[in-house]
Amino acid sequence: MNDTLWALSYFAGNFGCSPLDIIKRYIEGQDRDH
Fold this sequence. Notes:
Blueprint: H1 2-15, H2 19-33
């Protein structure tokens, strides 16, 4: 969970997107990596 929270805060700081967009992009990134 800590890694997820860090990633969300990281994306939020760099892109300034809404939480939902951040989560969607994070999930999509994980799916692409795996």
